[in-house]
Design goal:
This protein is an alpha/beta fold. The chain has 12 helices and 21 strands. Bound molecules: pyridoxal-5'-phosphate (PLP).
Length: 437
């Protein structure tokens, strides 16, 4: 390969025509067949990522431990059979995600209902669906859940969401484990203890343990270990004070992924081993029985499985300033640059074997100056009609996509062992007005 653009992931390559391939398939042919913009998802890669978690977790944690796929990163029907077959559970954060997961036939008992503001209707819907666990965020929800479960003659399994007050040095917007957070109830202020007491007293709620999520894009086991220490300390304290023994610790999501070559490769299995070792030692020290562990990976399951394909439109030089490449999608299918200035690796899939020496900014097609995919990057110089590939778009792209400027959402396909199939059809203009009376 004679280009200087990093391939980032080992399922990407360049063929004899100089085109980018994913799982051996020429992406320019995919663009031709399905149109652009197009989300391409490698099923092979998703399954590999799932297995990193399931293998390590079943080896090092207590029996019953399991990764739960954080559906908020990529929620659509087609993902759930894969998640189920790979032996994972699923987190849902809204009734819409719950509906999608149910519609896909996912086993109810492996579903966990998240969210910091579940309405009464949401609570009733989840109870009537027979969802496995609630992750209860606050006192009001606990009360509402207890009441609704009682009315149904159900005792609902639940975890309590607590915050451990850690800052894992990630971005503000994805950092939820601090004390000052709208998610969960803090341990440090003593409120989590009251939360647990209230939950123990709630007759129709069976509190089986705790949930805590310290943030996303975490690159090593360190902050998970710190989190585990705080959870264990709290759990041991509650055991001594109230004779309450938590069975489950849900330690949340977020091993990081590689968006650009600056990002490290996270050895998920090694990190899980380190966390397990740490928890075992902590249990020995505190005399707390080893808990069953849940983790909630989202992006590390799907991000590096996704590539978005666009067609190049205008190529524009603003003299004295910069060059722009305009693509036929943008913030409507990938709002992450507009929201967080998230960096991505971009390459010209039609000329992937050429030198990536064209410095440019990649803009979308919205009437919005913030509609950009990447700024001041280098790609192989494109011509109008070339296919541009943005790597690492499997997480929080389709999930965050929107219809701003009445731009229809792209189609999504799976690649698997050299084959491909449509899993989400492209929105039509009719879809855009389908709710309008
Ligand atoms: C966002 C989130 C996750 C998933 O985070 P990733 O970075 O996608 O792995 C898991 N659990 C909770 C509670 C979250 O808010």
């Amino acid at each position: 390969m004679s280009n200087n653009t990093p391939m980032l992931y080992d399922n990407l390559n360049v063929n004899e025509a100089g085109h980018l391939t994913i799982d051996g398939i020429d992406v320019t042919e995919l663009a031709q067949e399905y149109g652009t913009p197009l989300y391409v998802l490698s099923e092979d890669r998703i399954r590999e990522n799932c297995r990193k978690y399931t293998r390590a977790m079943s080896r090092v944690f207590r029996e019953g431990s399991m990764p739960l796929f954080a559906g908020k990163s990529l929620c659509f029907k087609g993902i759930y059979p894969i998640i189920d077959e790979e032996g994972m559970g699923a987190d849902v954060v809204s009734p819409g995600e719950l509906f999608t997961c149910l519609a896909a036939g996912f086993p109810k008992e492996k579903m966990f209902f998240h969210g910091n503001n579940k309405t009464d209707a949401d609570i009733e819907y989840a109870l009537d669906s027979g969802i496995g666990f609630f992750v209860v965020d606050n006192f009001n929800e606990l009360e509402a859940l207890n009441k609704a479960a009682g009315e149904r003659g159900i005792v609902q399994k639940a975890l309590l969401r607590v915050t451990v007050g850690l800052d894992p040095h990630t971005f503000e917007a994805v950092n939820t484990g601090r004390i000052d957070s709208q998610f969960g109830i803090p341990i440090e202020t003593g409120q989590a203890e009251h939360f647990l007491k209230a939950a123990i007293d709630a007759e129709n709620v069976d509190v089986l343990g705790f949930h805590s999520h310290i943030g996303s894009q975490i690159m090593d086991s360190g902050s998970f270990c710190d989190q585990a220490d705080i959870l264990l300390g709290f759990a041991a304290d509650m055991m001594n004070k109230y004779d309450y023994t938590a069975t489950y610790f849900n330690i949340g999501g977020g091993f990081g992924v590689r968006y650009t070559e600056k990002d490290p490769v996270v050895d998920i299995e090694k990190n899980i081993e380190e966390i397990a070792e740490h928890i075992k030692n902590g249990c020995e020290k505190t005399g707390f029985p080893e808990p069953i562990i849940f983790m909630e990976p989202g992006r590390s399951i799907v991000a590096d499985a996704g590539v978005t394909l666009y067609e190049t439109g205008g190529i524009k030089t603003v003299d004295g300033y910069r060059e722009y490449i305009t693509v036929d999608g943008g913030m409507t299918d990938n709002p992450r640059f507009a929201l967080y200035k998230s960096e991505y690796t971009v390459l010209n899939a039609s000329r992937a074997s050429e030198e990536a020496d064209f410095e440019c900014t990649v803009a979308g097609r919205c009437c919005e100056s913030g509609d950009r995919i990447a700024e001041d990057i280098k790609v192989q110089k494109p011509e109008r009609g070339d296919i541009i590939a943005v790597l690492g778009t499997g997480a929080y792209n389709y999930a965050m996509s929107m219809n701003y400027n009445r731009i229809p959402k792209p189609a999504m396909i799976f690649t698997k062992e050299g084959t491909h199939r449509l899993t989400v059809r492209r929105q039509t203009f009719e879809d855009l007005i389908s709710c309008e009376i």
